[in-house]
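Re-running the complex after MR caught last week's input typo. The corrected sequence lines follow. Everything else is unchanged.
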Amino acid sequence: MSESAGLLDDLLAGKHRALARVITKIENHDPGYRELVSGLYEHTGHAEVIGITGSPGAGKSTLVDKLAEHYREQGETVGVVAIDPSSPYTGGAVLGDRIRMASNVGDMDVFFRSMSARGNLGGLSTATADAVKAMDAFGKDKVIIETVGAGQNEIDIVGAADTVCVLVPPGAGDNVQMLKAGILEIADIFVVNKADMDGADRTVQELTEMVHLGQGSTTVDAGHHGFDEVEMDLDMPEDTDPWTPPIVETVAIDGQGVVDLVETFAEHRQFLEDSGELTRRRRQRVAEEIRTLLRDDAAGLVAAEMDDHGGVGAFVDNVMSGDTDPYTIADDVMEPIRDCIEEQ
Amino acid sequence: MSTDQSQRSIRCLVAKVGLDGHDRGAHVIARAFRDAGFEVIYSGLHKAPDEIVQAAVQEDVNVLGISILSGAHSTLVPKIIEGLKEYDAFDDTLILVGGVIPDDDKAELKELGVSEVFGPGTPMEETVEYVRENAPER
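Corrected-run output:
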């Protein structure tokens, strides 16, 4: 506890080493990390969180680099969390996004942190959201989350960012159609990067058609991101126009289009605040965090209960020898937990 | 019954510093470390010492591997070490130097705080085992 308290004080005092160490503890789920994140909570809520996702080769890291450079020129501090896949076999990872951050070399006020997905199928986890909190508490004005799109990744990033930006490389025409359902649901802003290449105009056209098609849908609007609604007492302005994802063209390597993109981020931010959507999203985020933590805690209890019965290996042996089946085992393990809950 | 399950991983920064453009060895090491289950951040070529320090501090690496085949180690390594000390990262970062380092200079580097120097021809397993055994806890 004293170590956590010291780290927290140092982080709030602006020590880079402490921020780095806190993120490591979060990532490692080190003993005491929960107290750390709990202590950070009251200092969060100030940073604007931008999620940037897209297929490999879309130029995300280069764009993040230029965004960071632009914000620094405006005198704002930046934190970047870049997530790369890890090997499902060895757990190893080559975290290569830092190489692209060429414009911000030596600038300690661009705090860049590489994270491995550590086997999470979605790529993101509570560790990412907690790392964002650490950067927020540290005092960063902007926090950018960068992750490779792979279907589930794109859905997960919604839970961590206020604004979600999907990068599409030119020539992705056919892929855009295939990604239609996922992309339309999560993107607040589309960026066609490498817009100087052949195929860019066609991609912009197809994205435009997709966005309009999405608008014309007769599906009941269950919220912009389609999550289960958390009941709210908020006074929502009823006449606010819904946000239509704009399409911004960039050539990140040259910095072209970056200013437009920054302005679009600001417009989306203004929309979030005016419409009350920002509060709704943050409530949704907190709800999901609570569910995830409870799920993890419950899983821990179940794991402990299994250990009392000889561990999962003993159960497997029973199934393999034909004595029982996985469903019966699950019922047996859950019985004491179910009994305790029902007694309340 | 704690659910704080550790997900510890050894994080390594493979750094190319100065004008040295030989990157094949660094790539081979990065891949070997990845396959050993480590998380590897690669710096890219032509980095200044303060860029290496920035990366090592922000990434909170357990291990900093510096690849130098240009003969500039006596100039560059001290600058990196000085930067690590400035950010309180020197005491718990394992510093390794790989590449072409004359024997006389090895002792000098170790006095500065480099933990080990690996020359050309060092078996991959030797480096991996050294890291496993010596990487400081985080």
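None of the earlier attempt is carried over here. The first helix of chain B runs from residue 24 to 35. The interface with chain A takes residues 1-9, 11, 30-31, 33-44, 47-48, 50-51, 54-55, 57-60, 87-89, 138 of chain B (CB under 8 Å).
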